[in-house]
Amino acid sequence: MIKQCCKSICRILVPVLLLFACNEASQAPKAVEMVSKPENLNKKTNENIAITMAFASEHNGKLNDSLIFNMLPVVKLWYTGLDSLRTWSDQERWLPMADSLYYFIRQSEKYGLFPSDYHFSHLDIIHHKLKTDSTAMLDAAMWARGDLLFTDAFMQIVKDIKLGRLEKDSVTLRKDSVITDSFYVALLKQVHSSKALTPLLEALEPHHEGYVELRGALKSFLDSMNRTKYTYLYYPFTDPADSLNFIKNLQTRLYEGGYISFNDRAADTAALTAAVKGYQKENDLKVDGKAGTMVVKSLNNNDQEKFKTIAINLDRYKQLPDTMPQRYLWVNIPAYQLRLWDTDTLKLESKIIVGQPQTRTPLLTSTLTNFIIFPQWTVPYSIIFKEMLPKIRENVAYLDKQNLMVVDKNDSIIDPHTINWFRLNKNYFPYLLKQREGDDNSLGVIKFNFRNKYSVYLHDTNARWLFSKTNRALSHGCVRVQQWDKLSKYLVKNDSLRYKPDTLAAWMKRKEKHTVNFSQKIPIFIRYITCEARDGRLVFFDDVYAEDKMSRQAWFSNKYNLLTL
After folding, report:
1. Rounded to 5 degrees, what angle do the CA atoms 531, 538, 556 make?
2. 3 pLDDT band (50/70/90 cuts)?
3. What gap in Å lies between CA 198 and CA 537, rounded to an integer?
4. 8 Å CB contact between 201 and 158
5. Of the spans 82-86, 378-382, 531-535, which averages the highest pLDDT?
6. Is pLDDT of 31 > 70?
């Protein structure tokens, strides 16, 4: 008797909280439930919302094979607090905010989002049918599904616009990197009361100038975007078994581009080679018939993949704090560029050299504290063992050529010819290698210090000709700065009493070593942004550390744009 009563309550009582309290397994929601009297539509829709919500809760958010609620806990919290569950519609009509959310989802690519993440294919059908089909307008089950999908989509959009889709990492600086459930609910209540959806969602976006410019340039990209879906090629691969998949996908991709005439059977080596040569010739690549790194990179460089790159970089800005400091240094690794901002004004821009892929410049946030004029370079042990020790064993004169001296733990200089270099290794190396100060020092004439666990810094270089190269991922991890002189002068501009205008120049001329502490410390952000907007146009940089590739595979590999906007 008690069970039967509980079951009855679950079927007819509207609040979700009571429904969740029942012990009976929830009934599967109906695909269709037509009401004969329009005045009963609200009541039946509410019942269907409760039943559907309870069923999804018992199945980890899964309603069926094609419908899964992504934000189930927050959706449940929203409906638990309502007397009447219908949120986006009333009787036989959609509320204006439902139309607003539908069109926001449809146009969500403008925000670097994918409509498919927000149930667009289902909502497109439901929204249209319940606007145009007078018979369907009396289907309480369809109204309930639409209501739930709109609520789930809204919550997911809030999360993706505010926090992005990338995992929180070591450089995520947002204090609100996890949004409380009450935040979502409060925002939806605000949408209800204000009847304004888009402005409230856009207010969640970052205010960083790089984000604003990138999002602004995205519109023109979408206007001319080639929406053809091409097969993505994963390369390089380490497992030999993957080579067969690669060849198969390569043929498919060449077929999609019209470089091979068939894809219903495997192409032989000659046919594939000829197709690759045709692609290379048409795209100004070295014509050798080999599908190597450059060919794969070019084949993957289509508008679908460019959009994903834009989306990834928009999300990287969402890892920054809501408000940037008034003054800060922005180091962008893929752009090989340093920028100094002061009160939203670009004060300095410089080419930089960053770490090689095998000795990456780390992403970090810190504060410049001082700089050293005519610094002495102490060679890191990693460089000693990987690069220098084999050369020293071959010829001790290598040390003189590199202007290096050997010192012991007491900082006493040791004659390198008295050392048995073959006895030294990673476990036993009681010396330091230091490079003498001067123009030929690897650090150049200046070194900028900031605290970090990686022992990296900004500095000048004695190989200044390297700044003329296009690919400047050449260092062991530190950042070499072309405009070091302008940067040093800027850092002491507020310390004229301590450092007169000609002081630094005099020290430089006399080649004197000095540590210069400046009163106004300046934050430094070393980041990885592979797409920027410049003068309203998108500029893409090489994915030098394959960070985009990893993010794509982890979060964006199965996402695609709408065929049409």
Report:
1. 45
2. very low
3. 25
4. yes
5. 531-535
6. yes
Q: Which two tokens stand for residue 120?
A: 């667009």
- Candidate from 42-46, 131-135, 308-312, 490-494 with smallest mean pLDDT: 490-494
**335, 337, 340, 345 alpha-carbon torsion, rounded to 10°:** -50
Report the C-alpha gap between 435 and 405 in whole angstroms: 6
Q: What is the mean pLDDT of the chain?
A: 90
Q: How many helices (H) and strands (E) does the chain have?
A: 20, 19
This prediction has a pTM of 0.88
Residue 8 is predicted with a pLDDT of 40
Q: Give all strands of the β-sheet with 404-407 in edge-to-edge order.
A: 377-378, 432-435, 404-407, 413-414
The two tokens of residue 9 are 């309550």
Tell me how far CA of residue 395 lies from CA of 22, 311, 333, 411, 474, in angstroms: 82, 52, 36, 24, 25
Burial of 162 (0-12, 13-18, 19+ CB in 10 A): buried
**DSSP labels, 468-485:** G-S--EEESSSEEETTHH
User: What does the block give as tokens for 274?
Assistant: 């000829």
Type of residue numbered 163 = L
Q: Is 17 helix (H, G, I), strand (E, B) or coil?
A: helix
Alpha carbons 433 and 401: distance in angstroms, whole number: 13
Which of 539, 40, 530 lies closest to 332, judged by CA? Answer: 530
- Give, to the nearest 10 degrees, the angle between helix 120-132 and helix 96-106: 140
Distance, in Å, from the CA atom of 212 to the CA atom of 105, rounded to the nearest integer, reads 20
Q: Residue 271 — φ and ψ, nearest 5°?
A: -65, -40
For residue 1, what pLDDT band results from cuts at 50, 70 and 90?
Answer: very low
Q: Which two tokens stand for residue 173?
A: 């600086």
Closest CA to 525 of 292, 298, 328: 328
**Residue 174: what pLDDT?**
57
3-state secondary structure of 81: coil
